[in-house]
Amino acid sequence: MAHELPYIAAILEAIQLEMERDESVLYFGQNMATTENEPFVDAFGNDRVRVTPISETAEIGIAIGAALAGYRPVVELYMAEFMLVAMDQVLNEAPRFRGMSGGQVTVPIVLKAGYGFTAGWAGQHTGTLSALFMGVPGLKVAVPSTAADAKGLMATAIRDDNPVVYLHHYLLTLDHGEVPDGEYLVPFGEASVRREGSDVTIVGTGWTVDRALGAAERLAGEGIQAEVIDPRTIAPLDLQTILESVDKTGHLVLVDQATRHASVSTVIAGEVAEHGFGSLKAPIVQVTGLDATIPYSEPLEAYVLPDDDKVVAAVQRVLGTAHVTA
Amino acid sequence: MDELGGEQAIRLLATMWRIRLFEERVGQLVRAGEIDGLIHLSTGQEGVAAAVCSQLRDDDHVYSGHRAHGHAIAQGASLGRVMAELMGRDTGLCRGLGGSMHLVDVEHGFMGATGVVGGNVPIALGSALAARLRGLDTVSVVFFGDGAVQAGHFTETVNLATLWRLPLILVCENNGFAEFTPRSAHTVVERVSDVVAPYGLGRVTVDGNDVQATWDAFGGFLQSARAGGGPFLLECLTHRVRGHYEGDPGRYREALAEEEWQEKDPIIRLERHGVAEEWFAEDELRGVAAGAAEEVEDAVRFGRESPLPPAGIVESMVYADA
User: What is the pTM of this model?
Assistant: First the structure.
């Protein structure tokens, strides 16, 4: 059985179910649990659900220490950029403990943060920083694009024994979707084929999965069958599904909201170039954000971001059906 | 709180000698090329480690920073396994993956040393929160230097620890130098215990090379933290005999004259103090240093005879489910 929920509610449903299931799950962050009426406080009390000061380093540090002591804290960071305030804890403490201790300890924390809020939020609240976290061994990174995955990946993140950066896309917050009832887990490292096709493979993450699906719909009108893949987690990254798809289609377009040189798409492009070169009938094309700070003004914001048109144009380019090629 | 007395004082002396001789031996091995990583020695600061850790239990959690050998040893880590770790051996505490700056010894509650100044301080909060949530009488203790106090997360930690009344004991080893820079070049606040004054936590500055004073001050805080109090800050004024790291040319300060150091040396001072208090006679102490020296040589032998870790260990340590 399933029910319909907005993406954000699906995430909270997973946290709620995991907190019911496991008393060691804690949930804290800024601007939450400020009244007794808040549902999580009502359900689990102020010991497990806490408001923190605006102290990202201390919030993440305390989560690491509580995890070392056997708890499973979920830290509500709100904005991925707020983690940048606490870079040492996120990139150089949490993911290092297991390796540096020779396997004596684990750090099961979830750093929950929204990202990519390109809706006039300008330069410092709109970044797609996923690849920054992906590049640090020891961290896992989940980037759900549907309500169902949002729920299933959060539940898996909480049960995982490693630090997980869980990045939900702010432009998807209120998108509704069918969500399985009750306990629902989406395994890490298993991509989802969101649309099957035989002519070209398009890989997107988060909000750009919808750009890829929108483009695929239009391309179908031109007789082009695009396969759309959503990796769902980028660490671990399911390269196998992508390589198998490229083997079938011979063409690859990568869509990423991040700036190109810090994007997941660049990592995938490198891996496919190395491991799937023989399958490629044309060079890979990446549709990424421009290497620029996200501007405030709406047309400029649109200018730097991927959209359905840019994805369609990229597919036409790799298939050689474009009127003008670069 | 336990009063410091004869048998306990001899145990403390033994701990300090183990640290002192271990550190001196490590320094020799660095110069001889047998240990080749980045090494920070705690020679001269042994009194703080001994007075604090000797009062803790294995179910307490202890965190340290880059100068961690003494804390790990005082908390009960095997000398051989610490030495093997510094030599990068498979038998090291962390199987050679952590090294000098990242000692972890879960068995004794030594949850971790981290190498970025102050990075350990907020993490110690989490163990204190866990103790509070479980209703246990365990405490979380974090060692850091005076240099860490100027990092913003120190203040974040003090704020959150006081706000949530956590059983955290912050132990600052103020040796007057933040890496290569004197405290006066970093801040106008002379005493670390004054930095935290507005938060209203229990705080005191002691002569950290006076083991009796450090023992008493920490013991008082510990007793209170076990009974639901906290947090606390203990500032221990101490002296780093060696440079910031082994190989540091140390051009930024004058070395202490030998007679001046003897007046500060926590081992000599506790020996004199114990004799004056009639806890023991001087000749009872003869075996203490010799016993520690033997243990250190055993540790060196253990390290030398231990195998290097297999390369395949690396990938298996990245993720907990790998």
Answer: 0.95
